[in-house]
Amino acid sequence: MSLSLVWQILLDGWIVFELLLLVVTRTRRDQGKVNDRGSLLLLWLAIGVSLAVAFRIADAMPRNLLAHAVWLSPLCLGILVLGFALRLTAIAMLGRAFSVNVAIREKQSLKQDRLYAWMRHPSYSGMVLMFFAIGLAERNWISLLILVIVPGAALFYRIHVEEAALRTAFGDEYVEYSRRVKRLLPGIY
C-alpha cells in the first residue's frame, strides 16, 4: 500500500469520525445546558475553509517547503497518526461526558487524571498536531500557515468558551486545576 493511499484513508477516516461524533454527541438528550456561543460553527467553518484554501493554494503554487525531503511524508504521516490517536484517546477517556457541545452534565466531575493530568484539552492538542501534519505535507509555506493559524484561532476561541463554562460549573476546583495543568502543550501552554 502506498504512503499516499494510507494518507488519504487516514484523512477520510478522520473526516467521517468527526461527522459521526458531531451527529452522535450533538443529539444526545442527557447533556447539560449548551453554552456554545457559536464556537462549534466557527470551528467547522474554519476547518472547512482552511482545508479548501490550503489545498487549492498548494495545487496552484510551487511546493517550496522541503520539496525534495523524502523523509517529510513519513514524518507527516506519523504526526497525523499521533494527533488522531491523541484526540481519540482524550475523547474515550471522557466517555459519556464528551460532547461536541459546550455543556456540563449534572453531577459531572472534572476529569484531571491520565491525559488530563498533562493537558487540559488533549483532544484539541491532537487536532493541532493533525492540522500541522496536513499543512506540512502540502509542502507549501502558505498552506502550512493557513492550516495552523485559521483552525488554531477557532480552537483558541472554543477553548476560551469551554473554560468559561468549566469555571462556572466547577469554580475553585477548575481554577486550581488550570494553575497546575497547561492547556495544550504540557509544561508550556
From TrEMBL:
<keyword id="KW-1133">Transmembrane helix</keyword>
<dbReference type="InterPro" id="IPR007269">
    <property type="entry name" value="ICMT_MeTrfase"/>
</dbReference>
<protein>
    <recommendedName>
        <fullName>Isoprenylcysteine carboxyl methyltransferase (ICMT) family protein</fullName>
    </recommendedName>
</protein>
<keyword id="KW-0472">Membrane</keyword>
<feature type="transmembrane region" description="Helical">
    <location>
        <begin position="70"/>
        <end position="94"/>
    </location>
</feature>
<feature type="transmembrane region" description="Helical">
    <location>
        <begin position="141"/>
        <end position="159"/>
    </location>
</feature>
<dbReference type="GO" id="GO:0016020">
    <property type="term" value="C:membrane"/>
</dbReference>
<feature type="transmembrane region" description="Helical">
    <location>
        <begin position="115"/>
        <end position="135"/>
    </location>
</feature>
<keyword id="KW-0812">Transmembrane</keyword>
<dbReference type="Pfam" id="PF04140">
    <property type="entry name" value="ICMT"/>
</dbReference>
<dbReference type="GO" id="GO:0004671">
    <property type="term" value="F:protein C-terminal S-isoprenylcysteine carboxyl O-methyltransferase activity"/>
</dbReference>
<feature type="transmembrane region" description="Helical">
    <location>
        <begin position="6"/>
        <end position="27"/>
    </location>
</feature>
<feature type="transmembrane region" description="Helical">
    <location>
        <begin position="39"/>
        <end position="58"/>
    </location>
</feature>
